[in-house]
Amino acid sequence: xxxxxxxxxxxxxxxxxxxxILGAARVAPNALITPAKTHPDVxxxxxxxxxxxxxxxYAQKYKIPRTFSGPNAYQKLVDDPSIDAVYVALPNGxxxxxxxxxxxxxxxxxxxxxxxxxxxxAEQLFALATKKGLVALEAIHCIFHPALHRVRDVVDSxxxxxxxxxxxxxxxxxxLSPLFxxxxxxxxxxxxxxxxxxxxxxxxxAALRFITAADTAALTVTSATAIGHKLDRARxxxxxxxxxxxxxxxxxxxxxxxxxxxxxETTVDFAMPGWGPFGLFPRMIKNxxxxxxxxxxxxxxxxxxxxxxxxxxxxxKCGRTRYEQAYKFKDGRGKRLWDSYRYQLEAFVDAVHGxxxxxxxxxxxxxxxxxxxxxxxxxxxxxxxxxxxxQPVAAA
Length: 396
Ligand SMILES: NC(=O)C1=CN([C@@H]2O[C@H](COP(=O)(O)OP(=O)(O)OC[C@H]3O[C@@H](n4cnc5c(N)ncnc54)[C@H](OP(=O)(O)O)[C@@H]3O)[C@@H](O)[C@H]2O)C=CC1
Ligand SMILES: O=C1OC[C@@H](O)[C@H](O)[C@H]1O
Known about the structure:
- There is one protein chain.
- The protein is α/β, with parallel strands linked by helices.
- It folds into two domains: 2-141, NAD(P)-binding Rossmann-like Domain (Rossmann fold, 3-Layer(aba) Sandwich); 143-335 and 362-379, Dihydrodipicolinate Reductase, domain 2 (2-Layer Sandwich), CATH 3.30.360.10.
- It has helices spanning 2-5, 28-37, 52-61, 73-79, 95-104, 119-132, 146-157, 177-180, 196-199, 202-211, 340-352, 363-379, and strands at residues 17-22, 42-49, 66-69, 85-88, 108-112, 136-139, 163-173, 220-229, 232-246, 262-272, 286-293, 296-301, 311-316, 322-324.
- Strands 8-9-10-7-11-12-13-14 form an eight-stranded mixed beta sheet. It has a six-stranded parallel beta sheet with strand order 3-2-1-4-5-6, with helices on both faces.
- Helix 6 runs antiparallel to helix 12 (363-379).
- The two termini are 35 Å apart.
- The structure holds NADPH dihydro-nicotinamide-adenine-dinucleotide phosphate and the ligand O=C1OC[C@@H](O)[C@H](O)[C@H]1O.
- Pfam families: GFO_IDH_MocA (PF01408), GFO_IDH_MocA_C3 (PF22725).
């Protein structure tokens, strides 16, 4: 075991990016470990897990050569000179602290969504990354897939006129919830940045902002209604419904655009109850967006994981309905079999190497989204998620 855990010697002429993962996290196999296998410039070199045995099992299962464990595991990984980039796969409330610690240790950071608990924290994080010349990316993977770019292009083309409203839903039926969440999941804990709007809500919000080109401004939240979670009804939302006003995008076709702002709504739920007598009939997963435009509708099925399967239904008021799919970018970049995590990794590595990624979110995209999430909680009568108590080192 000792031998296996000894780091391979560093080859400084090798452009390979050596990732370390913080947390033996459930998300990491899909989000990084598997995509890294098909990226020639990426190696998953280490994982840090607080528990020694669990860390060793995880490393063995996913063939990760090095494990850090114990109470200082995360800091040891972050400080290790053989690691170039840190994937922060921890509960939301720990993202800020560990991404900041990694940046201070001169590592690039791929941070799980939502990037931080608060908009102010994300601003601080991006400021440090910029100061140090490091890459910091929030892992809202679906935005990196060509499918949502195709939807944005159809909207942008003006073929259906300007956007009137958008409805985006991502919700799991209660029957399926135990497959996704532990009974005592971090998602249900306020102190760890839990809540459904934080966890699932960021997908519909980011996607609808992206496809309507309203991704660099904070939306106005016009209403929000939360369904409290049984473990903490006052602070943790099991479900959230919110409505917004979208700023009019200057990229819409000026011929068809009117001065009226568009509206939007999102619905998310960790555990939708069944319907009918005693809620006996289970609901289906909701994972779709509908864009209503002057001249028709666009419906996107499976916007969260479009790499698995998706379709885009374009239904003009006059004319024939068509179905589209997009698994590659229009400039030919990408591969049919890449999923959204693989596209995200491609963008991350491109950015590290100074190549122009197919898509790269501006820091303001992330910070304004978090402002909107904060406003949703406030409007729903719940406290926005609290800032981390971590105090970044002043000068590093
Ligand atoms: N992009 C995507 O598709 C998805 C993203 N996510 C995001 O990824 C992050 C992690 O989610 P997920 O993988 O489901 O999480 P897990 O429940 O698997 O937890 C991840 C790790 O968090 C660590 N951890 C550290 N402190 C605590 C604590 N106090 N309580 C609980 N865990 C702790 C544990 O590390 P250790 O091993 O050291 O014990 C654990 O392995 C979240 O931010 C979530 O939003 C989640 C799912 C999908
Ligand atoms: O893709 C996802 O689906 C379920 C969520 O709880 C998870 O965090 C999210 O990223």
